Amino acid sequence: MNGRRLAAIVKKEFIQIKRDKASLGIIIMMPLLMMFLFGYAVTTNVDHISVAVLDQDKSAASRELIDNFRESTYFDFNYYVYSQKEISNLIDSGRVKGGFVIPANYSRDLKRSGSPQVQFVVDGSDPTVARTAMNTATILAQRQSMDIRVRHLEQRGVSLDSVPGIDFRPQVWFNPELDSIKFNIPGLIGLVLQNITVLLTAFALVRERERGTMEQLIVTPIKPRELIIGKLIPYVVIAFIDVIIVLSIGVYWFNVPVKGSMLSLMLQSLVFLLVALGLGILISTVARTQLQAMQMTVLLILPSVILSGFIFPREAMPLPIQLLGNLIPLTYFLEILRGVILKGVGLEYLWKDVVILFVIGTATLTVASLRFKKNLD
Questions:
Q1: Which pTM value belongs to this model?
Q2: CA–CA separation, 20 and 211 (whole Å)
Q3: What digits encode the pLDDT tens for the residues 124-158?
């Protein structure tokens, strides 16, 4: 391999990238766009659910119950109505997602140590919102009920310490706030790294063929492997620049710190790059135009987003779908990213994912390179 020829190909590719405004736009804008879209729009955190209230009791006790729900920030009581028909109309029109009905005898039953039935109805057309609303409302109601029972016991002179019970203390590690942004940001790094590398690599080689300059390169003393490596090096550099951009936004904008070793993260990302580069070359050997390369890349991105565990938990998928997800390289890279960034673990826990990626990457890159050389011949 001649270093001067290789350097000439690398320089030529950087010049082409600089002159190609569309590629520059993809390099700079795609990571930023994906970061902010997924960071803000794709979230499983649901709060400020609009609710209509029918308070038929209008007592201090009913107002206390409403205030406790409001202070949780999960519910916004935007409408105070006078009949259940109004709640039904508001839910049907989509202006509220739920209705809160406090019966007329609420405070009286509380004073008599009764259990008044408070109704909470939810619009189930959006299961995510409905599930969050129901779970949160149940927890808040149980907490309010416990507070009321404690007050009744204290009024009767019964010490709470003398009442038997379970001291249950749950803990959440790595993401105590259960913030979906901290779950999405590491996955975004893998998705950006894959998309940028595959798309631009496929475009670079197809563009040479589309413009007729591939034949000119073939007749030069440049060897096929020098051509491949020379054209791929710029995109490796670009991919790491994009990773740094995405990581910086994640750390400084979304407050998702990297708990593990940054050096370890970069080295393991390099293994994933083997896979992405191989996929890019493979697409370039099949596609004849940049439009076909784009379509094939989109066809690759869609299952990666859905089946890799980027958004949807793989544990909830049927077994055949989980097995299909095992064929997607991003599945293993996400384990690495979330392990290093969120958990702070090292290679001693992630080596299996690294080995699998290395095997897939080596095989993909070898097959893609052989096909590319065959096309050159």
A1: 0.78
A2: 13
A3: 887 778 888 888 888 888 888 887 777 776 777 66
Domain boundary (162, 192, 219) is at 162
Residue 167 lies in a domain: no
Whether residue 168 lies inside any domain: the answer is no
What domain range includes position 238? 3-42+179-376
* CATH number of the domain enclosing 145: 3.40.1710.10
Structure tokens at 186: 């590491």
Strand 49-55 vs strand 75-80: parallel, antiparallel, or unpaired? parallel
Question: For 1-39, what is each residue's pLDDT tens digit?
Answer: 677 777 887 887 788 777 777 777 777 787 888 788 777
Nearest to 257 by CA among 247, 265, 267: 247
Same domain, 320 and 198: yes
Instruction: Confirm whether 246 is domain-assigned.
Output: yes
Comparing CA positions, the residue from 240, 205, 194, 211 lying closest to residue 13 is 205
The answer to the question of residue 144 being in a domain is yes
How large is the angle between the packed helices 347-376 and 262-286, nearest 10 degrees? Answer: 30
The 10 Å Cβ neighbour count of residue 96 is 25
Range list of H helices, the chain: 3-19, 21-36, 60-71, 84-93, 106-111, 127-155, 180-211, 214-218, 224-252, 262-286, 290-307, 319-325, 329-338, 347-376
- Give the SS3 label for residue 119: strand
Overall domain count for the chain: 2
Beta strands in 185-279 (DSSP E): none
